Amino acid sequence: MPKVSVIMPVYNAERYITYAVESILNQEFSDFELIIIDDKGLDNSLRIIERMKDPRIRVIENDSNRGIAYARNRGLEAACGEYIALMDDDDWTPPYRLGLENDFLDANLDISAVGGAMHTIDEHNRLIKYNNILMIHQPGRVKAELIFHDIIANGSTMFRKSIVEAHSIKYQDNMHGMEDYRFWIDYSMYGKIVNLDDVLLYWRDSGHNESAKNKSLLKSERRDTYGKIQEYALERHGFRLNEEELRRFKNSFAEGGRAVLTRSDLEQLFYVMEKIMEQGSEKDFAEELNFVCRYMYGIRVAYSDIWTSKNAK
After folding, report:
1. Which of 57, 82, 131, 301 is such that its CA lies 20 to 30 A from the CA of 72?
2. What is the pTM of this model?
């Protein structure tokens, strides 16, 4: 049995699939299987994969196009490894990634999942943005941050399969490109997650991938879904806010973090954050939760003050 199962859903990725697959096959760590789930795209991706003669590749074909959540769940079910690593069909990962993550999980038995820094590349493999993921090393703070936003580069991660199996954790449909955000909230309820400073993923922003399409074509739906995921995170942790408090929370911490709040908005948000901290005072991540609540509130104050100052000139 392989030590690591790498899961890669594939859909209309013929332009980049060779690049992505080879970045896995060329890993310095070799005790892995690469599970490719073909989601019935309309291009030559599957034929390109079939020409790659490597015994570590396993191909699973969906009967029809079922979407990213279904494809990833098929990969989770098929995985034989102790650890599962995630990878998308148009990204690239450095050759040290699997070995580094495997060694980290071997050496830190109390940690259940590990991710890393992410750089952004364009369609020509040029680096266009350095890491924009907040590198959080403390598991309690990761759990607290996930209530507000996703701070995990999904395609950089490796995690213990035992947690997924024991708690039936799956990717959910109709998340408008945020299936991973919901997944990591569920995972964080049962396992400790950390981010490393090492760059483990080069994420492609080609303007044509699923993330870009969701952000550009489904803005309203995505915003609503983002708020529902935040509400879900609050509920999973047992926080109870009334309808108006939930509205203020979601409007204040909408995706992108650019909410401009009035002085009255900030005063009301302050009481919402105080309520969350009070309800979380007995939780095992209470200290980290308090820090994150103050930090996130401070960002809203600073951004609103900066915006007001600029527009007053």
Report:
1. 131
2. 0.92
Task: Confirm if 121 and 155 have CB atoms less than 8 A apart.
Answer: no
| Average pLDDT of span 20-43 | 96
User: Which one, of 165, 5, 183, lies nearest residue 79 by Cα?
Assistant: 5
Tokens of 297: 């509130």
The owner of tokens 């998308």 is 88
Buried b (16+ CB within 10 A) or exposed e, 165-199: eeeebbbeeebbbbbbbbbbbbbbeebbbbbbebb
In the structure, what pLDDT confidence band is assigned to residue 306 with cuts at 50, 70 and 90? low
Q: Residue 280's CB: how many other CB atoms inside 10 A?
A: 21
- How far apart CA 242 and CA 253 sit, in angstroms, is 17
Name residues whose C-beta falls within 8 Å of residue 62's C-beta, 6 or more positions apart in sequence.
37, 38, 39, 40, 70, 71, 74
d(CA 185, CA 12): 29
Q: At what angle do helices 210-217 and 219-236 cross, to 10 degrees?
A: 100
